[in-house]
Amino acid sequence: xxxxxxxxxxxxxxxxxxxxxxxxxxxxxxxxxxxxxxxxxxxxxxxxxxxxxxxxxxxxxxxxxxxxxxxxxxxxxxxxxxxxxxxxxxxxxxxxxxxxxxxxxxxxxxxxxxxxxxxxxxxxxxxxxxxxxxxxxxxxxxxxxxxxxxxxxxxxxxxxxxxxxxxxxxxxxxxxxxxxxxxxxxxxxxxxxxxxxxxxxxxxxxxxxxxxxxxxxxxxxxxxxxxxxxxxxxxxxxxxxxxxxxxxxxxxxxxxxxx
Amino acid sequence: xxxxxxxxxxxxxxxxxxxxxxxxxxxxxxxxxxxxxxxxxxxxxxxxxxxxxxxxxxxxxxxxxxxxxxxxxxxxxxxxxxxxxxxxxxxxxxxxxxxxxxxxxxxxxxxxxxxxxxxxxxxxxxxxxxxxxxxxxxxxxxxxxxxxxxxxxxxxxxxxxxxxxxxxxxxxxxxxxxxxxxxxxxxxxxxxxxxxxxxxxxxxxxxxxxxxxxxxxxxxxxxxxxxxxxxxxxxxxxxxxxxxxxxxxxxxxxxxxxxxxxxxxxxxxxxxxxxxxxxxxxxxxxxxxxxxxxxxxxxxxxxxxxxxxxxxxxxxxxxxxxxxxxxxxxxxxxxxxxxxxxxxxxxxxxxxxxxxxxxxxxxxxxxxxxxxxxxxxxxxxxxxxxxxxxxxxxxxxxxxxxxxxxxxxxxxxxxxxxxxxxxxxxxx
Lengths: 259, 428
Prior knowledge:
The structure holds 2 protein chains of 2 kinds. Chain A is an alpha/beta fold. Helices cover 36% and strands 9% of the residues of chain A.
């Protein structure tokens, strides 16, 4: 296949740890053939060349300042397909934890009387700024899932992101349920696809991949309460990666969330 | 004649930074390294969160040094709550920490630094021109990642390491397999040393203060005392006497200084301060690379990283031997001995000394936090280097001058999105 026939892809980053782009680099360890089927024209973390002609844009990171909106819109104009890469781009991610405090107070806590020098606003998923075609969830993304998504995109298909909850994968792994060990977990309401990696390594699912589309939210909260969590603790658990969604939902329900 | 260099977003570094240099008739008028990363507010976000979450949140400061942030966070929390981790926990943390140092250094020297010396813009053209180099780098990097995965589930972001211990334990077979692969990787390690020993590094000398952790018993990566090449020694709790964060009139970035105008942290600082504790094979590598303390050429930070690659490969084998002799078994987490408190944790992450400082309330929630990142501490020194370097190379064509400066920035291996409260400098 000649260089010209390969679809051109570009990687961009906004507010993030760049761990998802690193996972992309890591995926080359097991799948170096990816470079045979796509042409990477822009990937600042890994290359100097900078091409502005691309079909697919993978975007990592959330939007946390007004002035980044223009850059996002430019990428959207150019790209035929925009993919949100990882939790920060997909849901807002840990960056949205700052929304649990008054913004002005957060700015002063870190920058003192120079707070005004640093432009910032509520962290948000990129979908809050531009239309997004697909999202690859996870903090960080799962290497294998990324490769599967690229394959699907090359075939003109929708990336295969599971619609079922994490518990399905956890059961398939034959893990002992964390609830039976006296721990708590958000697996029952969280979208699968990571292979239930956190419960497999003995830690609760923290919903980094976001919620399934029809979570049994009230049951989940009841179970957590039965395991001794206060309402405050449950809310805290729900906000690690998904403060933006939790607050949006509250607003839709007509309860403006207190800051 | 006026020359202006404006590298907007230096490539092949982690995060967003700009180089701005202005020369007028060979005289330096302006020379800055701007950090234009978005502010991230991690310290503010930690407040109100349970202490068990702190390492999960702070590992998200940086995808490259996620394990370093998590380990430093755990040590700060454990120091605050009076927790003494077990011998097995200490060994497992060291092993995954080595995995991360290896992963980061291999990524940096092979994929970010080497392309400059081979005259290409990224590692991608090397796939065709130098496949053996690229495949070796990917092979070594995979092994480094697999070390992390065996211990904590994954490198970015580690799962099984938590306050007081681990929630998952590698099996004997997994450790034996890793040991076998580390042994077989010696050829790759040797080839790495040969490759970097064959490069001609840019010539530039500027002595500065080198700051790192130090320990009496080993080449320090986790815990220890702060040591300065200028003679000072301080407990980690006194870190603010070393970092002295300050603002300068022409920029809004937080800088640090100790005994001089700036200091350097990272592989070169560790090499200069703790050379004697390197593994004998790492010392042989240093000799092959032609470096011995005190090295004052900042470009050789990458060479010091190669030395540390050798050290960590060898030391990882020794740690695995200790774990196998001990017999890894599931352990309960060590519980806190007090309800709340204040604690500092410090580690030598790939790019240098990192501090996390937490205040934890009696309800187990964080009430205050401060994180001081290696890249923050290096920016002032990088800028001083640029100011000293530019007049020496001002006669070069603009492109060559620019490449020298970009290579200098890359040698520092800056991790800009990590430097959470460096904040941006007003661009012109």
